[in-house]
């Protein structure tokens, strides 16, 4: 496993998800400092991860194996994975099953949930995609304020906060 680029707390914090440069998203048991499993294994660096409660209308799939007794609060949760290869991936956290895969304009740097079905993802070329998990093929909206990379996203009140870096020189 290479360097961890982002983490997300699951439920009350007994488990954490990490996203790494080696392309893996792993579920960790905080009490034992042990990896409970690989949730996603991509051919690309994982720049950001987010965990959110899924709306009842979203099919998260069923686990192929019984979850560990140390896996707490993963049921009815989604995992968002912001990838370097321009892909945003959503999986059922407990099931490890794919929910959708969205291809953006550039590397995804960060992601966040706004609700049980709405999410945000920011790219290196300055786009912020708002997607609906129930119909993710077409974004609800794409916000582009500048060409500066979107570095972080946070759900806040009825909207969100975004941070951007310096625009890349051509």
Automatic annotation (TrEMBL):
It holds the Pfam family WD40. WD repeats lie at residues 1-29. PROSITE patterns: WD_REPEATS_2 (PS50082). Keywords: Proteasome, Repeat, WD repeat. It comes from the Eukaryota. InterPro entries: WD40/YVTN_repeat-like_dom_sf, WD40_repeat_dom_sf, WD40_rpt, WD_repeat_multifunction. One of its GO terms (cellular component) is proteasome complex. Belongs to the WD repeat PAAF1/RPN14 family. This is Proteasomal ATPase-associated factor 1. It comes from Castor canadensis. The gene is Paaf1.
